[in-house]
Automatic annotation (TrEMBL):
MF (Gene Ontology): acyltransferase activity, transferring groups other than amino-acyl groups
Record protein name field: GNAT family acetyltransferase
Keywords linked to the UniProt accession: Transferase
Family matches, as PROSITE patterns: GNAT (PS51186)
InterPro entries in the cross-refs: Acyl_CoA_acyltransferase, GNAT_dom
Lineage: Bacteria, Pseudomonadati, Bacteroidota, Bacteroidia, Bacteroidales
Keyword Transferase: yes
CDD domains: NAT_SF
Keyword presence, Hydrolase: no
Species: Fermentimonas caenicola
Domain of life of the native organism: Bacteria
Domain N-acetyltransferase: 10-175
Length: 178
C-alpha cells in the first residue's frame, strides 16, 4: 500500500518543536521576504506559540504547513504550505521554501508532486495555485516543471517599499474531478 505524503526520497510531515530553529531562520531571513508575506521579524516565542497552537487542520485553519524531510539523512530541506484554502471552490494556494543548502537537488519538485497527489487524490481539491513574483525565475521554473501553467499576471501586486512588482498566477487543475 502506497503511503500518503512521501516517496522513496522525501516525506512531508507536520512541524515539530525541534523545527523551531529552521522556522526562525527562514522567517527572519529578510532576503526571502519579497517572495512571501513577511513584513517584520518573528520572535522565537511567536514561532514556538505557532507550533504549540497550530491544529494542523486545513478546514479549521485554512492552511497547512508541512516540513520537507530527506528520508536518508532525516534533514529538513524546507517547508511547503497550502494556504487560503477554500473548501467551497475546492482550491488552495501553494507556497514552498527550500533551504539554500538543498536547492537545485530536486527536493522542491518532489515535494510539489507529493503535495499535489495528497491535495487532489486525498483532499479532493480541484485546483492549486501559486502567486509568484515575476522576477523569481527559480520558482517559475519549479512550478512549470511540476505542471502548473501561467493563468495570469497581477499588475503591481507586490510592494517593496515604493516599488511595485508584477506577480504571476500559476495554476494546476485536477482534471479527474468534475
Amino acid at each position: 500500500m502506497k503511503k500518503i505524503l512521501e516517496n522513496n526520497v522525501i516525506r512531508l510531515r507536520a512541524p515539530e518543536p525541534e523545527d523551531l530553529d529552521h522556522l526562525y531562520r527562514w522567517e527572519n531571513d529578510t532576503s526571502l521576504w519579497e517572495y512571501g508575506a513577511s513584513i517584520a521579524p518573528y520572535s522565537r516565542f511567536a514561532l514556538k506559540q505557532y507550533l504549540i497552537d497550530s491544529k494542523q487542520d486545513l478546514y479549521a485553519d485554512k492552511q497547512l504547513r508541512l516540513m520537507i524531510v530527506i528520508k536518508e539523512s532525516n534533514e529538513v530541506a524546507g517547508t511547503i504550505d497550502l494556504y487560503d484554502f477554500d473548501p467551497f471552490h475546492k482550491r488552495a494556494g501553494v507556497g514552498i521554501l527550500i533551504d539554500e543548502k538543498f536547492r537545485e537537488q530536486g527536493y522542491g519538485l518532489q515535494a510539489l508532486h507529493i503535495l499535489e497527489e495528497y491535495s487532489f487524490n486525498f483532499l479532493k481539491i480541484k485546483q492549486l495555485y501559486a502567486i509568484i513574483p515575476e522576477n523569481n525565475r527559480g520558482s517559475i521554473r519549479l512550478f512549470s516543471k511540476a505542471g502548473y501553467s501561467e493563468a495570469g499576471i497581477l499588475k503591481e501586486w507586490l510592494s517593496s517599499g515604493s516599488i511595485y512588482e508584477n506577480a504571476l498566477i500559476m495554476q494546476r487543475i485536477n482534471g479527474s474531478l468534475i
